[in-house]
Amino acid sequence: MQAHKFLLEHGVQPMAWAPFAEGRNQIFQNPLLLSIAEKHGKTVAQAILRWMLQRGIVAIPKSVRPERIKENFQVFDFELTPADMDAIALLDTGVSLFLDHRDPATVERLCRRRLPDEC
Predict the structure, then answer these.
(1) pLDDT for 18-54, tens place per residue?
(2) pLDDT (tens digit, 9 = 90+) per residue, 70-81?
(3) Which residues, listed in sequence order, are joined to residue 58 by a DSSP beta bridge?
(4) Which residues contact 20 (CB under 8 A, 6 or more apart)?
(5) Which of 16, 71, 77, 97 has a CA positioned 20 to 30 A from the CA of residue 23?
(6) Among 59, 54, 30, which residue's Cα sits nearest to residue 43?
(7) Taking CA 14 as the corner, what is the angle to CA 12 and CA 20, rounded to the nearest 5 degrees?
(8) Domain boundaries of the chain, sorted by first residue
(9) pTM over 0.85
(10) Residue 49's Cα: distance from chain center in Å?
């Protein structure tokens, strides 16, 4: 959450490049997310996307299935309550499932990475 606040304070648009964490940690079976989604008559994916939308985070979910792509756009007809928002925020473990951009060694490795000349 601190990174999100920092980005907003400095005019940087936060973006979720893997808003569903690639399905890791059984995110779509999470009891809290299931209950919030059910309360709003939505799917877990829609609840996650709405949470990001309400926080001002751009989310670009990957899907190749037309029905899921359509579902991902159906997040503008409901709003999560402040209690929903706070409850979902508590799921944040503070640990990246992909790479830790707060780790100096990771940042250094990414900064030194060079693309081949033919790119």
Answers:
(1) 778 777 778 899 999 999 999 999 999 999 999 999 9
(2) 999 999 999 999
(3) 15
(4) 27, 28, 45, 48, 61
(5) 77
(6) 30
(7) 170
(8) 13-94
(9) no
(10) 7
